[in-house]
Amino acid sequence: MPRPTRLGMMDLQSLSEIYQNVCEILYPSKTPRPLLKKSLSVLDESVQNGRSLILLEAPTGYGKSTLSLTIYLAIKLGRMDLAQRVIHVLPMRSIGSHMYKRMSDEYIPKLQSSGLPVNKGDVGLQQMSSPGSPMLCKRFVITTLDTFVSSFYKIPPVEMKMLLTRGSAHYEVPRGCIYSSILVFDEFHLYTGANAFIGGESKMLTAALACIISLLEMGVPVILSTATMPRVIKNIIFDELEKTFGDEISIEKISPSIEDLNFIKRTVKIKTIIEDELFRIVKQNSGDEKRILIVTNTVNNAIEIYNKLKSGNIRAKIIHSKIIESEKELRLKEIESGTCVAVSTQVMEAGVDMSFDIIITEVAPPDSILQRAGRVARYGGEGELYVYPLSESGELIYGRELPNLTYANLEKMSQLSYDLLNIFEGLNTSKLIDRELFSQLRGIDSFPSYSSEVSKQVWRAYCGFIRDSEMIPVVPQLYLAEFINNPGKRNHYMFTIDDLLFTRLFSKGLVKEYITDSMEIKIFTKNFNRSLERECVSELFFRYDILAVVVENYDEEVGLHV
User: Fold this and answer.
1) Cystine design at 455: which of 28, 36, 154, 553 (Cβ 3.0–4.6 Å)?
2) Whole-angstrom Cα distance, residue 115 to residue 404?
């Protein structure tokens, strides 16, 4: 289905021209990024042909988020031949929160003060049932993959409770908004999921690919943006598109040249170490005003390292996913100021625009190492990357084979190279797509007669469309009063955990209460405990009207430590 042409709108600017204007306002001292200009030119040319997919590969720190900002501005300037809105989809909530803050607090005000027709009210951060843009209908929507996929497959998260209790929801509203959008799937290298190369199947990649094919069938322009996507994953995507469309699709691959990869002049030296050397390296450099980041694969390891640094009189800040949002924001500002050593988990891996002189990291898969290394000398100059072996708890996150292969390859390197991604070539990826789930999802979208009842059946059978475990909102007992008494700032006093951790906390008696949508505090019953053993956590939460759970062993300094 071709989109309206630009006939009669020839006086309107091209996307490249609009991007040039955006760069002049936001980055007056920087040169516009060639790969982004090319992507926007290709989008302008291909948006009329009905089926166009753009794969944009650009280095970390390249400013890829301005792509969506430019499309949003173009729509506001009258380029209605493009779409009604842009929807920017991300794999993690933390990345979405950072992007939304940057757009609403910095970029949009700057463009608005220059006389451009933009405003903060057009931008919505929608993460599951949050109120940012519940039906994905604002002009510029930033959302997570789980929210997007659930909305696309007729289970809008904001109406999940109504759907499960009354059997109906306004699911065609978000679907209509999606189908009249340009879709940007960002950080696509993270869509495979950490455990995919261990378990063999990736629900996340399966659902994302099913969505993309359905969108392309209806002529919705799709951009896949990535910094470190392995070639084997690209081949899976292209093979699936070829099976569906043959030659009836335009796939534009925009890849970086050597010059693009070196768009920032920096040198990153690599050295493999043992974990015990970590503290020696920190002590040697912490007094030299060098910015140091330590990255571990698990929260418990991060806390252990933080406590050792503190006992050694080294000023440090810890940040991870089990700390309330408001505190995370404060700590990010302190870390950005460079007054302390930062100890972190994967939350600093993507979406955080900060630079460090030294990064010391636990080994992880190749794409994760490249992402972490993107925070070394991010704006140019020289930096150092130290990598220590996989911990026992790290194996539970990534398995053993891939991180150990990565470590063995890093031992042979003196400087970081994207060739590290070639490690994926030797792995078995033939089962990454869950064929049964893929078929079920394609059917939900393809047949108008399929109601949300069919979606519910699939959702229940797989216990969700995206994740192997659900993300559960948590409020520490310490902040319960603030949470209840500040409706507009409830997200500030929360964080999320997966259902496996929830079950552990529940069995240890560390989670006894929950908060309902109507702000009542209730105690978990024995019936809930029995149901927990045989049902999906997410469905139980909707049946019991649970907005968030209350956890008791939260520490203000180190967060949740189990």
Assistant:
1) 154
2) 53
pLDDT digits 0-9 by tens, 250-300: 899 999 887 787 777 888 899 999 999 999 999 999 877 899 999 999 999
Residue 195 has pLDDT above 90, yes or no: no
Q: In this structure, what token pair is assigned to residue 79? A: 């380029």
Within the chain, how many helices (H) and strands (E) appear? Answer: 24, 20
What is the rounded distance in angstroms from the CA atom of residue 498 to the CA atom of residue 429? 25
The pLDDT tens digits of the residues spanning 498-523 come to 888 999 999 999 999 999 988 999 99
Domains annotated for the chain, with CATH where assigned, are 33-261 (3.40.50.300), 266-424 (3.40.50.300), 471-560 (no CATH)
Nearest to 213 by CA among 257, 260, 249, 254: 249
Judged on CB neighbours under 10 Å (0-12, 13-18, 19+), 404 is: middle
Average pLDDT across the chain, whole number: 90
DSSP for residue 341 = E
pLDDT above 60: residue 212: yes
For the residues 326-355, what does the mean pLDDT come to? 88
**Structure token pair of residue 542:** 């909707």
**Residue (of 292, 439, 265) closest to 361 by Cα position:** 292
CA distances (Å), origin 369, targets 41, 234, 528 = 32, 19, 41
Report the predicted TM-score, pTM, of the whole model to 2 decimal places. Answer: 0.91
Mean pLDDT for 97-103 is 91
Residues 34-45: pLDDT tens digits? 999 999 999 998
The Cα 129–Cα 149 span in angstroms is: 13
Which residues are within 8 A (CB) of 261 and not within 5 positions of it... i.e. 6 or more apart?
A: 59, 418
